[in-house]
Amino acid sequence: MDVIEWLLAGDPAIRWQVLRDLTHAPAEAVAAERARVEHEGWGAQLLAVEDDDGLWAGGACFPAGYRGDEPGQPWTSTMHVLQTLQILGLDPSSASASRAAALVAEHARWEHDGQPYFEGEVEPCINGRTIETGAYLGQDVAPVVERVLAERLGDGGWNCEAENGSVRTSFDTTINVLDGLVEFERVTGGSPAISAARRSGEEYLLERDLFRRKSTGEVVKPEYLDFAFPYYWHYDVLRALDHFRNAGTAPDPRMAEGIELVRSKRQPDGRWLLDRIHPGRVHFDIEGEVGAPSRWNTLRALRVLDWWDAR
After folding, report:
1. What is the pLDDT of residues 198-217, one digit of tens each?
2. How far apart are CA 255 and CA 211, in angstroms?
3. Could you give the CA distance from residue 304 to residue 43 in angstroms, rounded to a whole number?
4. Coil, strand, or helix at residue 109?
C-alpha cells in the first residue's frame, strides 16, 4: 500500500497536513487544500451544527441540560468542537472561524460560575484549551495565561485538582496547558516567563520518559500507551510527541522509548490503527472503529518519526 496516497484519499483536514508535513508541497497548494476544511468534510459538518448564537450543543464545557448520567463525557459542546476545528485546521481568518469566535466571546459562559468563555474558569486543563483555541482565533487570552503561570506546581506542571489540595502534576492537565502555551507563543511571540513555564512542564514529562512514574518506573496509566483520536483533554504518548514536534523542541534521548512505542504500532502495510475512542456523545464519528486503520494516527505518527529521524 502507498500510505501517502491512502492519506491523500481522506478528508481535506488530513490532506492539507499531509501536503505540509509529509510531502512538503508548495505553500500555495497547502493553503488551497486547507481552505476546503471550511466547506467540505469534517470541518463543514461541525460548522453545520453550530447553534445560532455561536455555541455548540448550547454549552461551553457541557451540553445544555447535561446531567452527568450518560456513559463517558459528552464531546458535543463548544470547547471540544473548537479544539477539534483547530486540529482539523480551520483557517482562523476564515469567515466561519471569525463568526464563531465573535459569537462565542459574546454568548458563551462557563458552567462553573458564568465566566465569559475567553476569560477562562478555574481548572488549568480547561484553561489550557481555552488559551490554545483563543489564541488561535485571535482572542485576548493573556489574563488566562497569567493565571496558569501562577498555578504551576512545584514539581513542574499542572493539575486540575490543585484547587482541592493536590500538589502533584497531572500528565493530562499538563499537556493541555503546554499545547495552549505553544499556540500563545506562536501567535504573540510569548515571553521569557511563558517559555520557562513551558519548558518546566515539558521537563516533567521527559523526566518520566513520557509515560513512567519517576519513583518506580512503572507505566502511569495503560491508556497513555494507546493512541486515540480525537484526544480531547486526554494524554497519550503520541499526543505528547506531536506536541514536542509542533513546539519545535529538539528530540531528546528521553523520548526514545516513546518513539519505539510509535514504531512498534506500525502495521505491516505501513499504517497505524485506532487504539482507543474516548467514550461520550459526539456529533458524528471522525475515525472508524477501534482496531481499524486510522488516518489521524498514521499522519501524526509519520510526522513524529520524520521529525525524530531528521535529528
Report:
1. 999 999 999 999 999 999 99
2. 10
3. 24
4. strand
